[in-house]
Write a structure and sequence with these properties.
The radius of gyration is 20 Å and the shape is globular. The protein contains 9 helices and 12 strands. 26% of the residues lie in helices and 25% in strands. With 255 residues, it is an alpha+beta fold. The strands form 4 sheets. Strands 1, 6, 9, 10, 11 and 12 form a 6-stranded antiparallel beta sheet that branches. A two-stranded antiparallel ribbon has the order 2-3. It has one domain.
Length: 255
Amino acid sequence: MASGKLKYKIFISGTIEALSGLHIGGNDAGMGLAGSDITVLRNAGRTPPEPFIPGSSLKGKLRSLLEKSRGEFGPPTIKSRGVAGPTNDPTSVAGMLFGTSYLAQGESGNPLRLIVYDCPLNTESAEKLLEMKGLERPFTEVKREAAIDRVTAVAASREIERVVEGAVFDMNLVVNIYDDDDDGKILKALASTLLMLNDDYLGGHGSRGYGRVKVAVAESGLTVKTAASYEDGSVAISLAEVLPESAKAFAPLAK
C-alpha cells in the first residue's frame, strides 16, 4: 500500500489499431444521421465529428482483464448485478493499479495509480479514412445484422455503426508510483494486461467479431518524471534509463 509520497510519474504512449469493426456506443438519438440503429461515440468538437475511445471504456476493460487473469475479485454488489465486483483488497495488483474504496476498507484504502486518457483518432489515420470510398458516414461503416427471437423465431434486422478496420487511435496512460510500491510488479501487470487485450476485444459485440485491436507501445513511448522534476522543470526521460527492468515488460508490445 502506498506511503502517500509520490516517487515517479510514468508516461506510456502508444496506439490502438482496430483489426475489425469497432463499436463503442454513442447517443442513438441521432441515429437518423448515421442510418443505423446503434451509433458510435463521436467527438463533437472535431469537424467532421471523429470517433474516439473513451478513457473510461479502455480503463474498465483493462481492469476486467486484470481481475480475471489474477482472480482478484471483490464481493457481489448491486452495481455488479449480484456477480463478483471490483476488489477491495489494497494489496492486490488490481487494487493498486485501480484503487480501492476508503469507505469499504476504512483506513486501509488505496489511491488509484493508473490514469487513462481518452484516445482520439490519430491524425494521419483520420486523413486516410476520410479518403475511403463507400462509407455511409466519415470514418464508419454500417453493419446490418439479423436478430432472431428465441421464442417466436422471427428475424428482426438491425443496423450497427462501427469504426472501420484499420482506424488507429492514440493511447496515453499515466502511472503514479509511490515510495513503497513495487514498480516492477505494477508495470509488468499493466503491460501483460495491454498484451492480453490484443487477444480479447474492446467495445461492444465482441463475441460476434467486433472490437479486435492491436495495442502497440514503442520504447520511445515510455518515459518518466520524478516528483522533483516538477520543482526544477526537468523534462521526462526514458523509462529504460531509470527503471530498465520495468521498461522490458513492454517489449512484447513494440510495433
